[in-house]
Description:
About 45% of the residues lie in helices and about 20% in strands. By secondary structure, it is of the alpha/beta class.
Amino acid sequence: MSINLKKVTAGLLIIGFMLVGLACMSYAAYPEGKTVTIMVGYRAGGSSDTITRTYAPYLSKYLGVPVIVKNMPGAGATIAMKHVAKQAPDGYTLFNLTLPSYVNATLFRKITAYDIRDFTVIHGAAGGDSNGFMVPYNSKFKTFKELVEASKKTPIKISSTTPGSNSWIMETMLKNATGFKTQGVTFDSGRAATLAVVGGHVDGGIVGSSNFPQMIREKQIRVLGVGSAKRLSYLPNVPTFIEQGYTTVKSVNRQLLTGPPGIPSDVKEVLVKAAAKAFNDPEYRKMSAKVGFAVEVPELTAEEAKQELMDAYDMSVKILKSEGIIK
């Protein structure tokens, strides 16, 4: 049987051109009209959820496709993280990773199914808020110092979010710095923890500071202190714990847009560019200032955000070792 080498060569060339063409189409196609989902590890209404829902429309604007938010609460966001880690690294499943709490929760629960440091980091989506301590508006306690002194006789019943969260970190810092004694009640979101204070079910609570402005305006709570390095612009009358003499009580929250490990560089590049445009959109900046975040922090590139993740990991290891939770 004779073989026509010219025809074989021509056929191979055609196949090669087709493969190159398909590769180019794949690069240009993302996100090819498909919906992108951002997963949130807490219930709707908390600071992580509020931030993501504020950010999502602007990411959608610059990706050119719908971007929806899906809540998957439980176990300090580790259920959502495990879910994201299993998803195809195609850019259609993203994750709002809150620092330092999500890193802390992973270590706190000794999760081995994934390593959070392997997640694909896209951008520093928001941040600058902190955590603070609130009491009901009609509480007899006017200062945090009064609360600490009272707790030495009877532990103060407070609400917060799950162990390992930023609220838990703040509570741990306050206990170590002041001798504050508490009886904790945990909730799946900062919103739920706040409502427990408003309803008088607890004496006080620790949640993300972006939960405070509306409740303060409505005279449902008073805030006795925040863990930021300096006073927050949207809470100008609330002193920091540092101002109150508790110099070791400092915690600033950061929200990172991430995805499963292994998102291809071409897809990541599309996401990085869209995320940067969303962050710098004047309307997004205006909305974020109104809600109470992303107004006092610089933009973080993918590389800078990745470094913050690594730094948060090291900090969480230090805190949990000091508490004897990990070795």
